[in-house]
């Protein structure tokens, strides 16, 4: 793949920074080594929300170039067995999940790391924007919070470093 524009892509600093949650002051994202990470020692445990809704983490991207195609990938695990029927992982650039869409993938609670990937072509002129990664799960009851585990997030130009 390409040069990664993200900092702390595998959460190996043991902290979330420079990633941030899109819901401030709520403990929805924990960097942990409670089970085996996909890469290195740490991974992110992203909690979903009640009512089968999701939560998100984001990171500011710099050095984006108009017309450039960027590849995205992330290692995602939905712990199993659990009461989850399925989960969705979505990634997008900018403030609009539709126009900036990279990927929306359904995952089952297998307890295995799965690669989620997509691509994005930059059409805007600004060299800076935000990458958002969201995890949401569906279960028979809406009174539960579930875990979406995240590791090795990559976002970079498809043609290599630019």
From TrEMBL:
Keywords: Hydrolase. GO terms for molecular function: hydrolase activity, acting on glycosyl bonds. InterPro entries: CenC_carb-bd, Galactose-bd-like_sf. Residues 4-123 form the CBM-cenC domain. The keyword Hydrolase applies. This is Carbohydrate binding domain protein. It comes from Aspergillus violaceofuscus (strain CBS 115571).
């Amino acid at each position: 793949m390409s040069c990664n524009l993200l900092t702390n892509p595998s959460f190996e600093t043991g902290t979330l920074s420079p990633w941030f949650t899109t819901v401030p002051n709520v403990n929805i994202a924990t960097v942990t080594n409670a089970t085996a990470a996909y890469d290195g020692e740490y991974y992110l445990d992203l909690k979903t929300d009640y009512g089968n809704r999701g939560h998100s983490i984001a990171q500011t991207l710099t050095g984006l170039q108009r017309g450039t195609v960027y590849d995205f990938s992330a290692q995602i695990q939905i712990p199993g067995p659990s009461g989850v029927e399925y989960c969705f992982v979505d990634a997008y650039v900018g403030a609009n999940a539709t126009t900036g869409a990279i990927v929306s993938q359904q995952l089952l609670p297998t307890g295995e790391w799965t690669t989620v990937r997509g691509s994005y072509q930059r059409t805007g002129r600004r060299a800076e924007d935000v990458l958002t990664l969201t995890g949401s799960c569906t279960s028979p009851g809406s009174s539960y919070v579930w875990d979406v585990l995240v590791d090795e997030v990559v976002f970079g130009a498809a043609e290599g470093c630019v």
